[in-house]
Amino acid sequence: MSDASLETIVSLCKRRGFIYQGSEVYGGLAGTWDYGPLGVALKRNILNLWWKTFVENRDDMLGVDAAILMNQKVWQASGHVDTFTDPLVECSNCHNRFRADKIDISKCPSCGKEGTFGEPRQFNMMFKTPFGPTWGSFESDDKNHVTGKLEVKDKEGKVVSEFTIKEKETNNSVMVYDTNAKVYLRPETAQGIFTNYKNVVDSFYPNIPFGIAQQGKAFRNEISPRDFVFRSREFEQMEIEYFIHPDNWQESFEKWVTDIEAFLKELGLPDEKVHKLEVPDEDRAHYSKRTIDFEFDFPIGREELLGLAYRTDFDLMNIQKASGKNMEYRPKDGGAAFVPHVIEPSFGLERAIMAVLSAAYTQDEINGEKRVYLKLPTHLAPVKVAVSPLLKNKPELVEKAREVYRMLKNPPDDMPGPRNLYQGAVMWDDNGNVGKRYRRQDEIGTPECITIDFQTLDDDTVTIRDRDTTNQARVKIDDLKTKSGFISQKR
Ligand code: GAP
């Protein structure tokens, strides 16, 4: 049985060291999350699987890692400065702010008063930050009012400009800077790919169709971050811009649907929880001619997991216009040069993590006792195997267990099996009794536990326990060098 509530997943993540609230010790910072030791391992396993699947294992893909801070012209040309907005409303009674399209605006969800919302205004979600030294800043007082005067002087100290701020109402400080020295924290990794399209073509001249992939942080000043990591203000994307001849867009789009479906299986997501939504014209992003949202049955309901969009030549044409640089691709067969069109699969890492954890969450009963375990695919499990002495106060058992642990954790170069199977994701665990250890390892999704007991001292065998069935087998330590108990039979 699975279908855990969001609260259950959040609590497991915190308790077991997957994900913590960002800046928690200071009361938190809304929409930010920190990854603990197991969370970072899970995250890297997903990132690596994605990179291997879509970049390393293919011969039509190249990777980039662009700077997060980009020239502001990027976001003017892409349309984000003008249109990357959500409708914002503010309650005139309690002054809380909401996304107008996510609430019933006839009644404030916070104070309950009716008719307190005016017309929504478009709120741009890009984080802005001064680039280089600012000119000055004003803090608001306890009534949220900012007043002040700022003088800008030349090298001789002569005042060349003066700014006066009168009773500006704000919840933040007011920062004064040269607007030419403003940058945005990127709201998508995609533009770092488009701005490097020409560089990559000049360096590699790949055959078309080809793709450029990037993984990295993105930032959105969401009006209402919510639902754990699902809608965060800082998150990670894994994006591909796949450059094609416009005549082939439909065929290429369909191929990407299939490739994405195969990847979601690798994440261990059950088919029946994945749904494709053909996004209607009025809901599509400003750059897209066709979009399919891949949705997942999250604990919060059916929501977008990732998107697949036909972005046409929108971005390259905008760059060509704004930069004056030619974005055309010259076909190698001597055909006419053209500006490529683009199919864009866009994955969000946090949503993938949430889907993987909620799909893996399982409850069953072993010998009349309830048990929780994460049925993670082995290749995603943060810990592949835990090694324990049966009793931690018996030095001979501890010593033998340490020997086995070291062998699996840092296998010699010529040891074939576990090196590949366990990939160093081996945990030493001597906390509590063996039953508690198994439960803890089950809860973090460790596929196998190895226990060293008194029989080990006699015959050099250990028990290996399988997470999903809880079956145990006795295996010779020597055999661990070439094969494992259960893990080799699993994906
Ligand atoms: N380059 C296209 C693009 O960014 P998007 O639909 O706005 O498209 C793509 O975002 C994916 O990024 C989403 O499907 C989702 O997985 C993830 N994402 C977007 N906003 C997010 C947020 N605030 N928190 C977490 N993930 C987010």
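^ glycyl-adenosine-5'-phosphate complex. The two ends are 21 Å apart (CA to CA). The mean pLDDT is 91.
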